[in-house]
Amino acid sequence: MVLLKIRADVSAERIDAVFTALAALGERIDGIESFSGGPYSSDEGLQRGFTHGFCMTFTDAAARDAYLPHPEHELVKAMVLDVLDGGLDGVVAFDYES
After folding, report:
1. Taking the complete model, does pTM exceed 0.85, yes or no?
2. pLDDT tens per residue across span 2-24
């Protein structure tokens, strides 16, 4: 699970490109079972400035560990970091096993 604070000046088209690239990782990297993501959509207002989020499910921890240094992941990670508000302060990654 990853939460993102995307800068206000980033266009909707660029945000769409980032999420399209994230979703495409499932076709390029073995071990990704599913991906879903998008903008914050609740009226509850508990997002604390985070504007978007995504969840990526892996077959197991080993698949996740192989994904992290994968060159395709590194390319998309650079796209994500480039749109964040506050650099690494604009992202929270939370891994858990179910």
Report:
1. yes
2. 999 999 999 999 999 999 999 99
Sequence-distant (6+) residues with CB within 8 A of 26 are 32, 33, 34, 35, 56
Q: Bridge partners of 4? A: 52, 91
Hey, where are the domains in the chain?
2-93
- Structurally, at CATH architecture level, domain 2-93 sits in 2-Layer Sandwich (3.30)
- DSSP codes, 16-75: HHHHHHHHHHHHHSTTEEEEEEEE---SS---TT--EEEEEEESSHHHHHHHTT-HHHHH
